[in-house]
Specification:
mainly alpha, three-stranded antiparallel β-sheet, 3 helices, 58% helix, binds zinc ion
């Protein structure tokens, strides 16, 4: 769970998803501006996730084109959803915030 470093209140999942390092998260309780503390992790997870997703996705698509079996196409969808969910869970678990500007 991602929490505000200042007041300890939960940050909405939606905000974490829309978050990038150009737009700090604003805590809805104490209105502090929060940025990622572990930036490297944050920058790494996107490309790594896309890479893992892409390689196996292409592999499954290849199987679909070779066999014509629609099951593989379904698996591509399941796989993409699973990886997205995995990335989301990792983000929520490991993203650490630091206060940039304290709210009033
Ligand atoms: Zn707060």
């Amino acid at each position: 769970m991602v929490v505000c470093t200042k007041c300890g209140s939960k940050i909405e999942v939606r905000k974490v998803l829309l978050f990038n390092n150009l737009n700090p998260i604003t805590c809805s309780v104490c209105s502090s501006k929060l940025r990622a503390k572990n930036k490297r992790f944050f920058y790494a997870i996107g490309p790594v996730g896309a890479g893992v997703e892409g390689v196996f996705g292409v592999f499954l698509l290849g199987l679909f084109f070779r066999t014509g079996n629609v099951v593989y196409l379904g698996l591509v969808g399941v796989w993409f959803a699973a990886v997205l969910l995995g990335i989301l869970l990792l983000l929520l678990k490991f993203l650490k915030l630091k206060v940039e500007t304290e709210g009033p």
